[in-house]
Design goal:
113 residues, 6 helices, mainly alpha
């Protein structure tokens, strides 16, 4: 697995300090890393970023839901048992987004070790 290890707290702080601009970059990079690691051409980081921006964040709800299954696929590919946390990511994104960001980045960091 290849990808950039990012400190989850720093990701959250950068999103706050940049008024969400770093968040857009982060969403793009996460999708790009998932595409490369899963070798899944159906993942299109540019399209996902545009959909997040032009649907005023509505697509982001779906994006978070997809992260549970994508993360499970990444763990399965590495041979580590994992469960599909799609519902968890969806609920956290809706009610407490910093927790969803922290958990996703932390789990990705564990894969990139």
């Amino acid at each position: 697995m290849t990808g950039e290890k990012r400190e989850p707290i720093m990701v959250i702080l950068l999103m706050i300090v940049t008024c969400g601009i770093y968040g857009l970059y982060w969403y793009y990079k996460i999708a790009e890393e998932e595409k490369a690691n899963l070798q899944d051409d159906s993942i299109n980081p540019g399209t996902e970023l545009l959909l997040i921006m032009f649907t005023c964040g509505i697509y982001m709800i779906y994006w978070w839901y997809m992260q549970g299954s994508r993360l499970k696929r990444l763990y399965d590919k590495k041979g580590i048992p994992a469960q599909d946390d799609s519902t968890l990511f969806l609920l956290l994104a809706l009610f407490f987004a910093p927790a969803a960001i922290y958990i996703l980045q932390d789990r990705l960091n564990k894969l990139y070790q």
